[in-house]
Design brief:
Helix content: 25-40%
Number of helices: 4
CATH class: Alpha Beta
Number of domains: 1
Order of helices and strands: EHEEEHEHEEEEEH
Oligomer: single chain
Distance between the termini: 10 Å
Strand content: 15-25%
CATH superfamily: Flavodoxin domain
Radius of gyration: 14 Å
Number of strands: 10
CATH topology: Rossmann fold
CATH architecture: 3-Layer(aba) Sandwich
Length: about 160
């Protein structure tokens, strides 16, 4: 399998838990962005995870980690994104942080995989919606924690197919 790194920022543990599940399913290294070095962004595939805070802001650890991401040479890299948000209380900024990561890498990477449907989600607006789909895996442990594990499992299978 390709050299895969899962890099995440997590404040409450939800994103970290999902990152470890994804990494285990892909036999990938899992790195907290707070401890990430420039070398951690050197992989054939990067899976980037964040939660959205406040009114559409990146998770705190990504505030500095995004500079390392933007400085990395990603021209031969495949990227997949996943994010957590609260689609009920923050329906106008749901998953905006995942959208911010997407915007940071979209023009720099060889390929982005793992886009998912917006169907079944209750939100009004999101920077993570690109061409009518979420730019990655959309998760909501506040309102739909019971769907998280199945969504992760289906998404991992999807990105494996897209990377093949």
């Amino acid at each position: 399998m390709a050299d895969i790194k899962v890099i995440f920022g997590s404040s409450t543990g939800s994103t970290e838990s999902a990152a470890h599940k994804i990494a285990a399913a892909l036999n990938a290294d899992c790195v907290n962005v707070a401890k990430a070095t420039a070398d951690d962004f050197k992989a054939s595939t990067l899976i980037l995870g964040t939660s959205t805070w406040g009114f559409g802001e990146l998770q705190d650890d990504w505030q500095t980690g995004i500079a390392r991401l933007q400085a990395a040479n990603l021209s031969n890299t495949t990227v997949a994104l996943f994010g957590f948000g609260d689609q009920e209380s923050f329906c106008d900024t749901y998953l905006d942080a995942m959208g911010i990561l997407y915007e940071a890498v979209a023009s720099k990477v060889a390929k982005i995989v793992g886009k998912t449907s917006v169907e079944g989600y209750n939100h009004n607006a999101s920077r993570a919606v690109v061409d009518g789909s979420f730019c990655g895996l959309a998760l909501d442990d506040v309102n739909e924690a019971d769907k998280t594990e199945a969504r992760i499992d289906a998404w991992v299978k999807q990105i494996l197919n897209e990377m093949a």
